[in-house]
Amino acid sequence: MKVRVHVSLKPGVLDPQGRAIHHSLEGLGFSGVNDVRAGRLIELDVDEGMSDDALDDMCRKLLANMVIENYRIEKVAA
Amino acid sequence: MSSFRGAVITFPGSNCDRDMADALEKVSGAASLRVWHGDAELPEHLDFIGVPGGFSYGDYLRCGAIASRSPVMRAVIEAADRGVPVLGVCNGFQVLTESGLLPGALLRNSGIRFVCREVPLVVENTQTLFTAGYEAGQTVRLPVAHHDGNFYADDETLDRLEGEGRVAFRYAEDVNGSARSIAGILNQAGNVLGMMPHPERAIESAHGGSDGRALFESAIKGLVGA
């Protein structure tokens, strides 16, 4: 089973990388971009039937830092 | 002569472990014990544990994230809970926040760039194991070398850190965008200090400054009661 974990900075946490990307987009002449936040996508290949609790546990214990980040688990149909 | 027992942890990618061990040896007169990240146990009867700077595990995932889950860190957390003094510098500070021993997190520097220079710091609290050798409000100069030293914590946590005297060092100028210019913090019990600047790189005049020496002297004197 393929699982995608989307990790993003919590609202309010300064994102210097997103800001730099934003500036660069503006430099390329793209207007109308109001904000950019950069995150991380982690793809897992796990055993069929892996429980939601186990996936949640992985996110909380390692994949995301709950002080600054949120995560969203997406199960991808084969 | 000295019965001091200090240990320094080495992770794959640590690069300040030798400096930390050297600083402990120069100040204590006792050889430092070296511990590998895969060791599940620490040497017995430790007086001090150093978690050094560097780029543990190549900063993969998040700075300090993988190192903080390594076998030896479970032992370090247990030792810290028993009251053994722990100093985390730079990547070591990141490891300590990732491990939960210290609150908050260290984000990418607000200016995006890696910052490598000497910076002025104000010693905010001299009533701690690590800072007793400084004068209150004293400004010291220590080197920094980091890309992710921008301390972040929510306002409630920051207020608590300030209220409990747990801000040990504050930048005297903007270095990396840290919340309230915080450069180093203590845990609630006061036996764990994490800081981005490198006291171990300022031990003797040949380093270009020796303002870091008092930190090791404070800790070691406080421990062996010399």
From TrEMBL, chain A:
One of its GO terms (biological process) is 'de novo' IMP biosynthetic process. Its EC number is 6.3.5.3. GO terms for molecular function: ATP binding; phosphoribosylformylglycinamidine synthase activity. InterPro entries: PurS, PurS-like_sf. One of its GO terms (cellular component) is cytoplasm. Its main location: cytoplasm. It catalyses: N(2)-formyl-N(1)-(5-phospho-beta-D-ribosyl)glycinamide + L-glutamine + ATP + H2O = 2-formamido-N(1)-(5-O-phospho-beta-D-ribosyl)acetamidine + L-glutamate + ADP + phosphate + H(+). The keyword DNA damage does not apply. The keyword Disulfide bond does not apply. Keywords: ATP-binding, Cytoplasm, Ligase, Nucleotide-binding, Purine biosynthesis. It is found in: Cytoplasm. Pathway: Purine metabolism; IMP biosynthesis via de novo pathway; 5-amino-1-(5-phospho-D-ribosyl)imidazole from N(2)-formyl-N(1)-(5-phospho-D-ribosyl)glycinamide: step 1/2. It holds the Pfam family PurS. Gene3D superfamilies: Phosphoribosylformylglycinamidine synthase subunit PurS. Part of the FGAM synthase complex composed of 1 PurL, 1 PurQ and 2 PurS subunits. Part of the phosphoribosylformylglycinamidine synthase complex involved in the purines biosynthetic pathway. Catalyzes the ATP-dependent conversion of formylglycinamide ribonucleotide (FGAR) and glutamine to yield formylglycinamidine ribonucleotide (FGAM) and glutamate. The FGAM synthase complex is composed of three subunits. PurQ produces an ammonia molecule by converting glutamine to glutamate. PurL transfers the ammonia molecule to FGAR to form FGAM in an ATP-dependent manner. Belongs to the PurS family. This is Phosphoribosylformylglycinamidine synthase subunit PurS. The lineage of its organism: Bacteria, Pseudomonadati, Pseudomonadota, Alphaproteobacteria, Sphingomonadales. The gene is purS.
From TrEMBL, chain B:
Its EC number is 6.3.5.3, 3.5.1.2. It catalyses: L-glutamine + H2O = L-glutamate + NH4(+); N(2)-formyl-N(1)-(5-phospho-beta-D-ribosyl)glycinamide + L-glutamine + ATP + H2O = 2-formamido-N(1)-(5-O-phospho-beta-D-ribosyl)acetamidine + L-glutamate + ADP + phosphate + H(+). SUPFAM superfamilies: Class I glutamine amidotransferase-like (SSF52317). GO terms for molecular function: ATP binding; glutaminase activity; phosphoribosylformylglycinamidine synthase activity. CDD domains: GATase1_FGAR_AT. Pathway: Purine metabolism; IMP biosynthesis via de novo pathway; 5-amino-1-(5-phospho-D-ribosyl)imidazole from N(2)-formyl-N(1)-(5-phospho-D-ribosyl)glycinamide: step 1/2. The active site is at C90, H198, E200. Keywords: ATP-binding, Cytoplasm, Glutamine amidotransferase, Hydrolase, Ligase, Nucleotide-binding, Purine biosynthesis. GO terms for cellular component: cytoplasm. GO terms for biological process: 'de novo' IMP biosynthetic process. It holds the Pfam family GATase_5. The keyword Ligase applies. It is found in: Cytoplasm. Part of the FGAM synthase complex composed of 1 PurL, 1 PurQ and 2 PurS subunits. Part of the phosphoribosylformylglycinamidine synthase complex involved in the purines biosynthetic pathway. Catalyzes the ATP-dependent conversion of formylglycinamide ribonucleotide (FGAR) and glutamine to yield formylglycinamidine ribonucleotide (FGAM) and glutamate. The FGAM synthase complex is composed of three subunits. PurQ produces an ammonia molecule by converting glutamine to glutamate. PurL transfers the ammonia molecule to FGAR to form FGAM in an ATP-dependent manner. PANTHER family: PHOSPHORIBOSYLFORMYLGLYCINAMIDINE SYNTHASE SUBUNIT PURQ (PTHR47552). This is Phosphoribosylformylglycinamidine synthase subunit PurQ. It comes from Novosphingobium chloroacetimidivorans. The gene is purQ.
